[in-house]
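hi! just following up on the protien thing from before. the input was this:
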Amino acid sequence: MIRQLMSRTIPLFFLASLFWLLPAYSLAQELGIREVAPGVYMHQGAHEDLDDGYQGDISNIGFIIGTEGVAVIDTGGSQQVGQALLASIRKLTNLPVLYVINTHIHPDHIFGNAAFKQEQAIFIGHAKLANAMELRKDAYLRQGHDLLGEQFSGSEVIKPTLMVESSQELDIGERKLLLTAYPNAHTNTDLTVLDEKTGTLWTGDLLFIERTPSIDGDIKGWLSAIAQLQQLKGIRHAIPGHGPATQDLQGALNNQARYLNLLLSDVRNAIKQGKTMEQAMDSAAASEASHWQLFNSVNRRNVNLIYPALEWE
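and the predicted 3d structure came back as:
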């Protein structure tokens, strides 16, 4: 089609505007959406590291449709990804987007927020999310521009206006959502969303499936959060922050706990044996390597974060 247009006498400014639109249009066409449960839709992000083919689309994002409106759960790593998510919503419903819920601070989950400003939605997050966004804003914006260039254009940090201290119930029309805030775990801003109608739990990055769990908070706190999640009853579907949705929440949590417990034990032992952090990076939780994607890079970063903290135990 473009070749045919170029063969005609079309003003250059028109062609320029057409090419400017291509990336967002292409992404909107390619954003695969799966209906996990009736009215519950997710897009699964790619298992890519930040420095290896990153396109701002590595986290799970999605939405829930009620009779009165839509709740969005995480929006992706750029405004462009958020626009593609909004386009997917509009293919299914014209109901207003009532809420945009961020499950935690990480940039691959929050920078699509900008696409929903025009929807006049209420932005929601953990009680500590707004402060975390302010502290990390400049670094995250620089990182986004460095990684994505023009594809990051229009992305911005949008803070929550409704903050969850412990729990919050939302009603989107014949559909109640229970939001639960957690202490320092994967991050210090973790929030889960439970759709009570279908028993679908959005865990955010409190749960990773396939992709190596990445620590940016407190490993012991994360293990406590896993234990809390294991007590939940009636969960029929779980949507992790990364990886495929599952009907076996307990099995997925057990897999993650196995890795984190081994990592914690191995790093503690390395410290007791007088090993350096670099030596611990080479050996800690090594037996888990075959169970997880991106293991070598993520596991080393995990050791780098927890080793200094555990030295002070």
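Residues 32-310 form a domain with the Metallo-beta-lactamase; Chain A fold (CATH 3.60.15.10).
Confidence is low (pLDDT under 50) at residues 1-29.
cheers
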